[in-house]
Write a structure and sequence with these properties.
Layout lengths: L2 H10 L3 E3 L2 E5 L8 E6 L4 E4 L5 E2 L3 H7 L2 H10 L6 H6 L18 E2 L9 H9 L4 H7 L2 E3 L7 E7 L5 E8 L29 E4 L2 H7 L4 E4 L10 H9 L3 E3 L6 H13 L4 E3 L13 H10 L1 E2 L2 H11 L1
Parallel strand pairs: 10-11, 10-12, 12-13
Antiparallel strand pairs: 1-2, 2-3, 3-4, 4-5, 6-7, 7-8, 8-9, 13-14
Helix pairs in contact: 1-3
Length: 310
């Protein structure tokens, strides 16, 4: 039996042959009939029910196989550089999940229209934040104390407790952002993320609020995306398409992130944000159109894109 076919059967279970293709039960939609078509020679796959498809069967092995099966497939495909995967997922003692208290002055805007919240609400309206966004992101504000005059957007970890928050001024305070002095190595709002959708990497939380309609939008809490960060490891582990949508003036940062994701065989796309100050300023229909037009990055075309931007 073909070595790759053996791995596929170990990962997906039994199959039946149809011409040059092998039909399996779909691991994505779990349809009761064998509708997941795989063509090893052409290195493509497609489910005829949920329309999950791709041009590299390795993505299926990465998502549904064991670490050993991934290693075997990489070796058969000539992808022998596996040390980065070993290092990324080496066994380490898991630290306790970070939790923090929201500011004592925190008032959820969705609780009702208090006259003191008028300035905060006007600021959100000007930024295109809807009432649905306020509910989804549990946005609040402070009108006294250390965070007086600031919008508060909390982040919740898998435990259900707050693990970070963004505090953005809405009344011209000299410091735009005054976030808590705590560890930033978190996945913002991990509790509510849908890892089965396309991932949209953005810079700030207001960018994520705008972009959540085109995928699972995740803001970078830190200044970049390190390989040993929780977010990077989650992106590799979940192996979903990633659209990098950083501000147009952050091309160097975006380029570094794209390179890292490509190194780990993540399907990575560069979403054009030119013409706007940031993603939060982009109309949602423009965002969707640019996502559909986004180029998939590879080592070759990413290098070409960097040269064109010099």
């Amino acid at each position: 039996m073909n070595d790759k076919m053996k791995i596929l059967k170990d990962v997906l279970g039994r199959s039946r042959k149809s011409n040059q293709e092998h039909l399996f039960y779909c691991p994505y939609c779990n349809h009761h009939k064998m509708k997941f078509s795989v063509n090893i020679d052409k290195n493509v796959y497609k489910c005829w029910v949920c329309d999950k498809r791709g041009t590299d069967i390795y993505q299926v092995i990465r998502k549904h196989g064991t670490f050993s099966q991934v290693q075997q497939w990489r070796a058969l495909s000539g992808k022998v550089e596996i040390t980065e995967f070993d290092n990324l997922f080496e066994e380490k003692e898991k630290p306790a999940e970070q939790t923090i208290r929201l500011p004592d002055c925190f008032q959820p805007i969705a609780n009702g229209v208090d006259i003191r919240a008028k300035s905060a609400i006007n600021y959100l309206i000007k930024r295109g934040v809807t009432s649905e966004d306020i509910l989804r992101w549990k946005i609040g504000y402070c009108d006294e104390g250390e965070y007086k005059g600031r919008i508060i957007v909390p982040s919740f970890g898998l435990s259900g407790y707050a693990n970070f928050f963004i505090a953005r001024t809405y009344n011209r305070n000299w410091m735009k952002y005054k976030n808590p002095r705590t560890n930033k190595d978190i996945i913002f709002n991990e509790l509510y993320l849908d890892w089965d959708k396309d991932i949209i990497l953005v810079e700030g939380v207001f960018d994520a609020i705008r972009a959540h309609t085109i995928g699972t939008a995740i803001p970078l809490v830190g200044s970049t995306l390190r390989e040993n960060s929780k977010l990077f490891q989650a992106l590799v582990r979940h192996n979903q398409r990633v659209y990098v949508a950083l501000d147009d003036d952050a091309r160097a940062k975006a380029s570094t992130i794209i390179n890292k994701l490509i190194d780990y065989d993540i399907q990575t796309y560069s979403l054009d944000t030119s013409g706007y100050e940031d993603v939060a300023e982009m109309p949602r229909d423009v965002l969707m159109a640019r996502k559909e037009q986004a180029d998939r990055m590879s080592s070759d075309n990413h290098l070409f894109q960097k040269l064109m931007n010099l």
